[in-house]
From TrEMBL:
Residues 166-445 form the MHD domain. It comes from Aduncisulcus paluster. SUPFAM superfamilies: Second domain of Mu2 adaptin subunit (ap50) of ap2 adaptor (SSF49447), SNARE-like (SSF64356). This is AP-1 complex subunit mu. Coiled coil: none annotated. Belongs to the adaptor complexes medium subunit family.
Amino acid sequence: MSASAIYILDYKGRTLIHRDFRGDVPSACRLVFIRRVLEEEDELLVKPIFHEMGITYVYIKISGLYFLIVTRDGENASLLVSFLYNFSKVLKSYFGFISEESINDNFVIIYELIDETLDMGLPQITEASVLKEYIMHDAVSVEQKVAPVAVTGAVSWRPEGIRYGKNVCHVDVIEKVDMSISADGSIISSDVRGQIMMNTALTGMPELKLGLNDRVRFINLSSSDAESHSSVGTRKSGKGSDRTVDLEDVSFHQCVRESSLRSSGKSISFIPPDKEFQLMTYRYATPLPKAIVSVNAHTNKISSTREEVAVQLRTLFKSRSVAQVVVVSIPVPLDTFSPTMHPSVGSCMYVPDKSIIRWTLKQIEGGSDATCRIEYSLPSVREEEEIGTIGEGTSIRKPIEVSFIIPYFTVSGLQIRFLKIVEKSGYETQSYLRYTSRSGSYIVKHH
């Protein structure tokens, strides 16, 4: 019986601690869990184990906090319930009591305890007396006191004896933007989730240090620790230089030495797995003040059987960046026929089975505008109630959907300051860094 991921959630379901071991369960499982558990609690039907969509949820509730394990392996789930109770006893042994404050105040130590008690999701040692021999209450750094590898499984994710003729390391910072925009251009909702992906082909057992820029803050940390970490983040020049990059729901690969964040606040130290892996995931905590790409559409009635849609696309990011593969899906009535499209740039295609006009732009610079005029015919006889009006015209039925990719750009402002690779043989390494922001669910409502 193994865990795919473990969470500690507050009473509203917000993430305090999260460690993903296998990457085989979606991040949305937390939302499924809290929805179902809150519903069941209202009905006094609480169950510590339940299944939904092929995922087994195992949880206990202590001091108003949820300790949750999710797994694809549904057999012997009761063993994970036992583990959660034992793990909570370990935390009580370290901190005296369990509360949201004690969890936040001991953010780093808890991650270390998780890594020692769940080796790649497999339950291990849960005896506090044994754990305290090498995980000290004051979080002594790994360099000061290191437990034997056989005990801790510290590099269980990387075999020894790896050799490459050419040593290469790729780092990708990828952010996905979900946004809903009202007809007047204001933001209804926004969500930015990011990940740092790495692909390493490195000989031996290298030690890596990856530095974030000066204004990133992990808001999961306690207030005192967060203060000392305020230098981990995005350095801006000129106007806007004081903007911090607040990250929440932060989760690290188990290879990360949490003590490195605590001691320096500027770099992440780790011995990487071989090949591709996810180093870190996060959510940008600040709502976006404006759209990245805005779309304005207005429909006019030309005659009783002919309509025109005027669409304006505007990119609101800085001109030094270029959006690629921009696709604007413009809904039209189900009974549309004989459409004609006149884009100022790019190309258009009518997709009748989806009742949309698909406007595609290979690329467009930041701070630019593009327009598209669409005309289409309608049957001469239509049910009046099917037609909504905008002034003298009819409205588009569904929101406009937009997709895009913006290379060399992060919405949050997170940047990598440096990547150092140290291995005892001193070989040379080629490192590559890419940033990419892309749309998730990006919709624009209209008049």
